[in-house]
């Protein structure tokens, strides 16, 4: 099942090229915010599923092309992101120690929305293509063997990054900016994803494929990530675990870019990039720079802070 919010945060299910309003099937869930609603659906899904399926079966729905798609998790309580979690196509000798960071819930945007580059002296802005896990039931100190039982589904995720900032809280300033966590277009329930450790992940910028890798290259698999995180803090239904990226295709995001991300089977997430300063960077991936014997990220070419 593919769940999404559309228009004024109406909850729906994708049916072919259409979306069906399932409000009537989830009317029993008390909520004051769309996140409360989707979290209630996730935690009570086994009870609600047959009613949802019945509503979907009895309705044609409306074309997806006629609605505004919203973030499927508009304000998750926790967004955990795994860091340095890929073997980078065999170029790393060994896995990096397992580690993670958090992004602010206000960083969430959805399909068709815009990532806004801030007015600050970052040396470059990047977006990391990632498979994100949606937690389905409370997880505290779960084992790797039981971790996958705590997954509700999966969605596309872009981890926006403002590189090169100094100061004590540099990682927070780099990762937790408003609009720096695009997700969607929907949540695909776990039963529709046969093997999340074998999904192709493709990110294109203005139609040019920049990142193209498989989740089988993860250094620490999804079960280990959930076990690690749940030993630090409790994960709740509707929380997000972003599983990391292969960094070799990372490149500058800049004003006017049209970004598409597709984790295999999870639909296509489309976002725009806006920079009121109109800054430009050399259009190179990290792999291209490495192959040319160049260090660091691509240089800024024009605009403020050059």
Keywords:
2 domains; 32% strand; 6 helices; five-stranded mixed β-sheet; twelve-stranded mixed β-sheet; 19 strands; alpha+beta; Fumarylacetoacetate hydrolase, domain 2; 306 residues; single chain; 16% helix
Summarize the structure.
With 306 residues, the protein is α+β, with helices and mostly antiparallel strands. It has six helices and 19 strands. Helices cover 16% and strands 32% of the residues.
SSE order and pairing:
Layout lengths: L1 E5 L3 E6 L2 E4 L12 H10 L1 H13 L4 E2 L5 E2 L8 E4 L17 E3 L5 E2 L4 E3 L7 E12 L8 H4 L3 E13 L6 H6 L5 E9 L10 E6 L2 E7 L7 H9 L9 E3 L15 E6 L5 E6 L5 E2 L4 H6 L8 E3 L4
Parallel strand pairs: 6-15, 8-12, 9-17
Antiparallel strand pairs: 1-2, 1-5, 1-12, 2-3, 3-4, 6-7, 10-11, 10-15, 11-12, 13-14, 13-16, 16-17, 18-19
Strand content: 25-35%
* Helical content (DSSP H or I, runs of 4+): 10-25%
CATH domain class of the largest domain: Alpha Beta
Report low-confidence residues grouped into runs of 5 or more: none
Whole-number average pLDDT?
Answer: 97
Order of helices and strands: EEEHHEEEEEEEHEHEEEHEEEEHE
CATH topology-level fold name of the largest domain: Fumarylacetoacetate hydrolase, domain 2
The biggest beta sheet is recorded as: 12 strands, mixed
* Number of self-contained structural domains: 2
Class of secondary structure makeup: alpha+beta
| Strand count | 19
The total count of helices amounts to: 6
Could you tell me the radius of gyration in angstroms? 19 Å
What is the distance, rounded to the nearest whole angstrom, between the alpha carbons of the first and last residues? 47 Å
Shape descriptor:
globular
CATH architecture descriptor of the largest domain? Alpha-Beta Complex
